Amino acid sequence: MSAALRLQGLCKSYGALKVSDGVDLAIEPGEFRAVIGPNGAGKTTLVHQVSGLARHDSGRILLDGRDIGALAMPDRVRLGLARSFQVTSILPGFTVRDNVALAVQARSGSSFRFWRDAAREPELNEPAAELLARFGLAHRAELPAGLLSYGEKRQLELAVALATRPRLLLLDEPLAGTSHAESREVVERLQALRGSLTILLVEHDMEAVFALADRVSVLVYGRVIATGTPDQIRADPEVRAAYLGEEAA
Amino acid sequence: MSARLRGTLLPVSLFLALALVPVFAKLGPESFILAIATRLVILALAAMSLDLLIGYGGLVSFGHAAFLGIGAYAVGILSSHGIDDALLQLAAALAGAALFGLLTGLIALRTEGVYFIMITLAFGQMLFFLATSLAAYGGDDGMTLSSRSQILGHDLLRSDAALYGLSLGALLLCYLLCRRLTASRFGRVLSGTRENRTRMEAIGFQPFRFQLVAYVMAGLIAGLAGFLFANQTGFVSPATMSWQRSGDLIFMVVLGGVGTLHGAVAGAAAFLLLEEVLSHWTEHWRILFGPLLVLAVLFARGGIAGLVGGRRG
User: Fold this and answer.
1) Could you tell me the pLDDT band of residue A81, with boundaries at 50, 70 and 90?
2) CB contact under 8 A, B183 and A91
3) Where are the alpha helices (DSSP H) in B81-206?
4) Complex ipTM value
5) In this structure, which topology does domain B3-308 adopt according to CATH?
6) Closest approach of chain A CAs to the CA of B89, in angstroms?
7) A42 CA to chain B: closest CA distance, Å?
8) What topology is assigned to A1-80+166-249 in CATH?
9) Can you give the pTM of this predicted structure?
């Protein structure tokens, strides 16, 4: 059975610190998987390794059965992987539309075109406009992205990730730092994406995780200690002791 | 005035003023005025190509004069062997610039920030010392050209006005090309990389390839400038590609306004006029020159183009 994303014995150390200590994970096509864990559990590093921003020391990363562990980040993106960043990563001097249009451009023909005005290419602007409308940013299209509110930047980052038409979307704490209202909006957008592509969500916000995920994996000290439905995870005594217990205490 | 109109006001008036130079030159010491104006246009061309790297690519090259030197030496070396055909010399200048750009770019573009500055400076200095060691071509002293380049066997460039016209035509053509280039798909990837390289990689671009192409293109334009430069001065020497010259080019780009293209033209004009005026007052004119740049950077962050308005995003 071929998983959309399979991690086998993924290890990474920074000096003596093992941030990934034999991570095994299999995510089915179309699944919405959340990874939770206390601070320092290695969640972000896991996203970095899968996306190619950081290199793993050993183990395998299989995207649709293909080992992508040796590929650089742009090559992995071309195979259908996209990600968001915990610290918002956009092009602040580009307009909101051009942020998305550039991501469309990455998947639409060659970018070694030197003559035609890219700002007037409908094949870039139309998909961009569609995505901006979906993420409630249509009225901001002409604004430099750096001037957006924090919540809007989080939305823009999701739109940019989707513009590359990924099969697997990695979300690194998309709710980090958002207000209650903003976070509710992001959760709604993610809810709407459910089923259309495979999603790996790394998140701190328990309420959001249990509302969104089909299955939840718990990462503690670089190891997956449990995987199950939200209900199973809530009830798991080991998880409660290692993680949820912290909040109950 | 709309931003778009303001954005075109400065370039249009700059090129109009440059086009009128031959007319007004007739009223004064013609060859002197044309010589300065030709020098201005050629250095503007080199500075504009550097702005492509600094302003759009975020790549501060401190060795850009090397390309100027390659273009000039292509003329000098070929003409010393009796080959004075402009097309052959130009082809050699461009081929040399492209090759040097490709080889040094492959290495330099693996670094960023201050390391990129230092490594481009190092490559520039390597070429400078190579030129000083070319005893057959004048070594330290350089060499004087016997004549200007011939076009299809005719000495068309002998007239100062013709050389000026050719240089201005080259500047205008390259300016229009660069405007298209920076607004194209390619240009957007280049600018996007300047703003946030990781973001560009995360949407699937390999910035290195785009930067390398931009680096070679900028080198080609500066190589063309070098070809014209040799014809204007009638003399080729290692000083053409000294690191001070690379610094002057950065100065022009910053003074004129980074990331505007026409700013580099305004910057070159301001640079040469200041040099002309200040060097009449004192031979230590650079002592006055330095503080002026400091003031320009402190109080006019967008340079001359920024003061006039309509800076493009």
Assistant:
1) very high
2) no
3) 86-108, 113-132, 160-183, 185-195, 197-202
4) 0.92
5) ABC transporter involved in vitamin B12 uptake, BtuC (1.10.3470)
6) 26
7) 20
8) Rossmann fold (3.40.50)
9) 0.93
